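Residues pack. Consider this:
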Amino acid sequence: MTAVDVTEHESWFHRNQQRIAPWLFLAPGVLFFMVYVIIPVFQSFNLSLYEWDGLGAAEYVGMRNYEDLYWEWVDRDAFYVSLKNNLIWLVMYLLAIPAGLFIALFLNQTVWGIRLYKSLFFFPFVISQVVVGLVFTWFYDPTFGLLNEFLSWFGLGPVNILGDERFVTYGIIFAGLWPQTAYCMILYLTGLNAVDPEQIEAGRLDGAKGGRMLWHIILPQLRPATFIAFVVTIIGALRSFDLISIMTQGGPFGSSRVLAYYMFEVALSEYGFRMGYGAAIAVILFLIMLCFIAYFLWSMYREEKGH
């Protein structure tokens, strides 16, 4: 290689290094995302077309696993209960977003003791789901739990939240809302720090106060935080597993199952290592997540395009 060739090679690199550098930094993350997310998604699609116990040879069965899920839905069996509970989780879990927003608005004030309040509201976010599940299991206990102690002050009898099919799903969701609200609060606190003070001042000069200020000036600037909060909350609601495993293990009588826990049961638990059937449930769960997130992305895109 001549000196002229080396000079040309170096000059090309120097001319394009600003374009190349971002791709070099992104490459490890993209590689890990492909290996641990994208490829397993396609493997799950493929596995859902087979009957496989995890050890022997896999038998191709086409859409039979999906047909079995359909008949479970028609007969209102385990899949129906799991999907219904997931929809309840999804609707109620979204309450964490407005709750997190209002707590963040409160904590964004400069009042005495605000650091203590921030620490108390931040605490649920740093503890694990296992600890949350154990704490609320004790809280709901019909013999010594604080909930029933509180109800006894009003002359109400003990309520077995986790042992009653009518209340168990809502009790677990309430436990999950505690750390999820803290997470949304942190997102909105970060977003509030980026709110343009000049727009706030301009709104005050125009007479905007309270709800009008919040709706027309603050919330539009919190769209990125709201988007992340929606996506993370939807994913958290649909893949809920930890709290159910710790608090009820799907009981009583399977009434608190969700799709993620049912997938675990049929693939790895006492139902008999039906890997293909579990993969079919995973595919259904993935498609539900995809639909919700795609709809929200499309709505945000149309709003941005409209502006």
